[in-house]
Structure formats: structure tokens, C-alpha cells
Amino acid sequence: MTDSNTRVAAAGPAAPAALAGPAALAALAPATLGLLAAWAVHDLEEVAAMTRWSRTRVPVLRARHPRVPDRVWRRLEEMDSREFAAAVAVMGVVVAAAAADGYRTGGRSAFYQSALDGFGLHGLVHLAQAAVTRGYTPGVVTSPLVVVPFTLWARGRLRRAGVLRPTRPRDLARGLGLAAAATVASHTVARRIRRAPAAPWRRTPGRDRPPVVPPAGSAR
Questions:
Q1: What is the average pLDDT value for the chain, to the nearest integer?
Q2: Are the beta carbons of 139 and 46 closer than 8 angstroms?
Q3: What is the per-residue burial (b if ≥16 Cβ within 10 Å, else e) of 97-132?
Q4: 205 φ, ψ to 5°?
Q5: Closest C-alpha to 123, from 14, 58, 46
Q6: CB-based contacts of 192, cutoff 8 Å, min separation 6
């Protein structure tokens, strides 16, 4: 018995056991489902500011950074509020799926943890963009107030629960890649929705409507 106690003491304190069951889901809900809430606060800022920012700041940035391909500036100028809102909605589906998977697995989900890492890195990208452009960019206010603090706090909760996966450079790259891929996909879907042709009777009000077929047996 003495030898066993000596070996346990020498090994140091045991790692915290991973939470399991309903208690884990409730304990980690602020960290898992909270990802969707934090993302919503952040993207509300982007939705509110993007249209005006692209109209007033893009011409200034285009003149200040002539080496940036012109198609980048044109893309920002062409994006209207409806397209950006649609892109945000598509991204919301991705974030909601990641948060739900994190909740379902008690924070263990690799998808959720990659999304959480990507969310935090996305906030750092916003700060870098603001530094490079020397001014406000949509999302830069909530990045240091919500995005980065929430990510660090949630990772701390996962670590204390014993479910945080090891963070290696490739894991951070995967999180950032997930965020970038989801952003590109959401804007691609939003662009296709905006460019989808409308039905003829919607394009020309009052004309070219589909024929109205009277019910069978109706009086003529």
C-alpha cells in the first residue's frame, strides 16, 4: 500500500476527468451554445456597418492601396445589403450546426472546437485588417470585446472539463481554414441567390402572368 501511494504521489495530480452525461451538457452549454450567441452579436455589427463602410471607405482604400487587384474593390462595392445578409444567414447555419454538435458531445466535438478556434482567429484577422487599413472595418469593435474574450473563456471551460483537444499549429490552421471556407461558401451561395432569375410575372408586374384556370364546372 505504501509503495502504491508513493507511485501515485510521484505521478502528480490526476488530470481532470472528462464530464459526461446531462450534467456536462448543462455545465458546458454557455461555452457550446454560447458560440452561436457570440457570433450573432459580432455579425450584427458587420451587417449594420457593411453597406455604409463599403460605400464610404472602399474608394479611399482603393486609392491608398493601388497594388490590391481592382476586382477586390469592385466585389466589395457590388455587394448590397441583401446579399451580405444572405451570406450571414448561411454562415449562421454553419455556426449553429457547430454549436449544436458541441452541446450534443459535451464540448468534445472536433467540428465545434475547430469552429471555436476559427471564430477567435477570425477576430484577430479583423484587428489586423483595421491596423493595415488604419481605420474602422466592420466587425472590429466586437472582435476585442466579444470574439476574442469569448473564445479564450470557452477554451478555458473546455480545458477545466478535460475535453479540450491539444492545440497544435495544424489545429489552428484547420480552424482558420474552416472559417475561411465557410465564409467563401456563404458568399457564393448568397451571390447565386441574388442572381437567380425571377419568375416572368415578377419581373414584369401586371404582364406575362401565368394563365388562371377556372375551376371545373364554374359558370362561364
A1: 79
A2: yes
A3: ebbbbbbebbbbbebbbbbbbbbbbbbebbbebbee
A4: -55, 130
A5: 46
A6: none
Find the mean pLDDT for residues 109-135: 92
Residue type, 216: A
Report the alpha-carbon distance of residue 40 to residue 50 in Å, rounded.
15
Please, what sign has the CA dihedral across residues 84, 89, 94, 95?
A: positive
Task: List CB contacts of 33: < 8 A, sequence separation 6 or more.
Answer: 99, 100, 102, 103
> Taking the mean position of all CA atoms in its chain, how far away is CA 195?
23
Please write the tens of the pLDDT for every residue from 170-219.
Answer: 766 776 677 777 777 666 776 676 666 554 545 545 545 555 555 555 55
Q: Which amino acid is at 100?
A: A
Cα atoms in the Cβ-side hemisphere of radius 13 Å centred on 218: 6
Report the alpha-carbon distance of residue 117 to residue 113 in Å, rounded.
Answer: 6
Task: Scan for cell 406575362, then name that residue.
Answer: 208
Residue in this structure with the C-alpha cell 492601396, named with its chain if needed: 65
Give the CA angle between residues 64, 179, 67 to the nearest 5°.
20
Which three-class secondary structure state does DSSP give residue 5? helix
- Average pLDDT of span 38-55: 91
d(CA 123, CA 172): 13
Least Cα distance to 191 among 89, 91, 84, 53 occurs for 84
